[in-house]
């Protein structure tokens, strides 16, 4: 499972569990909290009304139903009301008020339904007559949760003794709509918070994955070049990723590690490849030297002496080009302070290779003007010199090597036999060579590697194709 998917899964799991419990607690607490507030207000109301009813109960007027308290309560029940309460319209007064005497028998009921009934067994009446706080919740319709009614009682004192109980009752359905709205708001707010948290989680995950991938790409780019690995040798290392926090510390630690270790693999690969390439000329020089120690005819001695010189020159070319390639592979990009014309670079390269071409009986030509760009003139000239030298090696006597300029591209065309198709993709690898027209394999395999590296340092690319006859190598430079 990828890092991003794991982070998202862990985040959503933690966020979902937290949201579930938080929403559950909020929603579960709304209903009891509203009812607690309602009960608190009913307690105050019951005690105020108990004080107002005490005189009429002491005088026995409540039983007759003809008392100032009874008349006021009846008027309250019939009052019209139209109140807008936080977006809801209240158009009825919902208090039911009844009074019981010291025996628990109802002597007054604002709804005239229970007068004369014995309420002495109800919890609120029993507790209040004992001097305790009395309240109960009951249903008008058994089994119907929406028909619940809250009853809160207060004692009626006459001469400092409890002479009766006044009870205020209110249906819970009158506040249910407030509860429903509050639960809806909490639920919607929770879902919005969950969505925002999810968006933040996705953003954080993407940011983390993006920076981790930058570190991964950087780690892949800083590995040292290996023999035969054209892509690695030609691709410059990325800059150290600028990421914050611990990831930034990791990037800097990787850069320090790269600085310490990159030379180890680089030298190891070069030593292996160089050892392989040196075996042939060294063996030839040793063999010729051993023969020269013997008494040989003058003609044979001249042949073996010429072989020593030839192989020494081959070693010199190998060392020189290896040093050039080594310096190029240690660089990350080309440097240029002013626009450089491809025509000038090509003209300079032709001047450097003219003597060798003449010695081999090969004609050099230059066509086109080419463009100018922010390139490094010495590197482009070096690449063209290696291309032209390579073309001269493969061109038969009396043929032509053409250098053609067009825009930001320069092509070198020879008239040789070309290369096998399987070898086209490997041209540019370090120490990879193909047989010369005369059957020899005298090249160092570093010329096209240098060309490939120069183009890569400029951010361009090299294209190679057989033209039958000849081979055409085109260097494309960015504008």
Description:
Among the domains are: about 5-180, PAS domain (Beta-Lactamase), CATH 3.30.450.20; about 335-475, 2-Layer Sandwich (Heat Shock Protein 90), CATH 3.30.565. It is about 55% helix and about 15% strand. It has helices at about 5-60, 60-65, 70-75, 125-130, 175-220, 230-235, 245-290, 300-330, 340-360, 375-395, 420-425, 445-455; strands at about 85, 90, 95-100, 105-110, 135-140, 150-160, 160-170, 340, 365, 370-375, 400-405, 410-415, 460-465, 470-475. The strands form four sheets. The protein has a five-stranded antiparallel β-sheet with strand order 4-3-7-6-5.
Summary?
The protein has 479 residues and is an alpha+beta fold.
Secondary structure topology:
Layout: H1 3-59, H2 61-64, H3 68-77, E1 83-85, E2 88-90, E3 96-101, E4 106-109, H4 123-129, E5 134-139, E6 148-158, E7 161-171, H5 173-221, H6 230-234, H7 245-292, H8 298-329, E8 340-341, H9 342-360, E9 363-367, E10 372-373, H10 377-394, E11 400-406, E12 409-413, H11 421-424, H12 447-457, E13 461-466, E14 471-476
Parallel strand pairs: 9-11
Antiparallel strand pairs: 1-2, 3-4, 3-7, 5-6, 6-7, 8-10, 11-12, 12-14, 13-14
Number of strands: 14
Helix/strand order: HHHEEEEHEEEHHHHEHEEHEEHHEE
Straight-line N-to-C gap: 42 Å
CATH class membership of one domain: Alpha Beta
Assign an overall shape: rod-shaped
Global structural class:
alpha+beta
- Using only C-alpha atoms, the radius of gyration works out to 50 Å
Strand line-up of the largest beta sheet: 4-3-7-6-5
Tell me the CATH superfamily of one domain: PAS domain
Question: What share of the residues does DSSP label as strand, in percent?
Answer: 15-25%
InterPro entries: HATPase_C_sf, HATPase_dom, His_kinase_dom, HisK_dim/P_dom, HisK_dim/P_sf, Sensor-like_sf, Sig_transdc_His_kin-like_C, TCS_sensor_his_kinase
Catalytic activity: ATP + protein L-histidine = ADP + protein N-phospho-L-histidine
Keywords: Cell membrane, Kinase, Membrane, Phosphoprotein, Transferase, Transmembrane, Transmembrane helix
EC number: 2.7.13.3
């Amino acid at each position: 499972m990828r890092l991003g998917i794991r982070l998202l899964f862990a985040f959503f799991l933690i966020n979902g569990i937290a949201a579930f419990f938080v929403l559950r607690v909020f929603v579960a607490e709304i209903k009891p909290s509203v009812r607690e507030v309602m009960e608190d207000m009913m307690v105050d109301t019951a005690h105020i009304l108990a004080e107002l009813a005490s005189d009429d109960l002491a005088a026995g007027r409540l039983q007759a139903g003809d008392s100032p308290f009874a008349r006021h309560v009846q008027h309250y029940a019939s009052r019209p009301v139209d109140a807008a309460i936080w977006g809801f319209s209240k158009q009825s007064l919902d208090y039911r008020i009844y009074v019981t005497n010291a025996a628990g028998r109802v002597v007054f009921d604002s709804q005239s339904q229970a007068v004369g009934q014995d309420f002495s067994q109800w919890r609120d009446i029993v507790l209040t007559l004992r001097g305790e706080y009395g309240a109960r919740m009951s249903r008008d319709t058994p089994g119907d949760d929406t028909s619940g009614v809250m009853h809160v009682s207060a004692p009626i004192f006459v001469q400092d003794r409890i002479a009766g109980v006044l009870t205020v009752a209110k249906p819970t359905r009158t506040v249910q709509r407030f509860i429903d709205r509050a639960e809806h708001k909490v639920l919607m707010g929770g879902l919005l918070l969950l969505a925002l948290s999810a968006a933040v989680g996705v953003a954080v995950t993407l940011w983390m994955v993006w920076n981790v991938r930058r570190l991964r790409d950087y780690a892949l780019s800083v590995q040292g070049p290996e023999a035969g690995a054209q892509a690695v040798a030609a691709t410059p290392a990325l800059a150290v990723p600028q990421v914050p926090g611990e990831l930034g510390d990791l990037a800097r630690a990787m850069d320090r590690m790269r600085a310490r270790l990159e030379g180890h693999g680089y030298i190891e690969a070069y030593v292996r490849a160089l050892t392989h390439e040196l075996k042939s000329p060294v063996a030839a020089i040793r063999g010729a030297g051993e023969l020269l120690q013997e008494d040989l005819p003058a003609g044979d001695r001249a042949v073996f002496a010429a072989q020593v010189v030839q192989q020494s020159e081959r070693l010199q070319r190998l060392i020189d080009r290896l040093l050039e390639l080594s310096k190029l592979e240690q660089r990350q990009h080309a440097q240029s302070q002013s626009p450089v014309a491809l025509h000038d670079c090509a003209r300079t390269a032709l001047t450097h290779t003219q003597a060798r071409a003449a010695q081999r009986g090969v004609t050099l030509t230059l066509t086109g003007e080419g463009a100018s760009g922010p390139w490094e003139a010495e590197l482009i000239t070096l690449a063209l010199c290696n291309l032209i030298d390579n073309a001269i090696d493969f061109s038969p006597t009396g043929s032509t090597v053409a250098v053609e300029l067009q825009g930001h591209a320069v092509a070198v065309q020879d008239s040789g036999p070309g290369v096998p198709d399987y070898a086209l993709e490997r041209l540019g690898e370090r120490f990879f060579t193909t047989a010369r027209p005369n059957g020899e394999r005298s090249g160092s395999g570093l010329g096209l590697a240098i060309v490939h590296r120069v183009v890569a340092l400029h951010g361009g690319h090299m294209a190679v194709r057989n033209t039958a006859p000849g081979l055409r190598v085109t260097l494309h430079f960015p504008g």
